[in-house]
Amino acid sequence: MMGSELLAGKVIVVSGVGPGLGRRVAEGAGLVGASVVMGARSVDYLDELAARLKDRDIPSVYRRSDVTVTADCRELITAAEETFGGVDGVVCNASASGPFGATLEDGDLDAWQDAFDVNFFGSLRLVQAAIPALKRRGGGSVVFVGSQIVRRVFAGRGPYASSKAALLTASHVLARELGPYDIRVNTVVPGRMWGPSLQSGIGRLAASRGLTVEEQKQKMLDDVSLPRLATDEECARAVLFLLSDMAAAMTGQSIDVNAGETFH
Question: Which positions are catalytic?
Answer without folding.
Answer: 160, 164
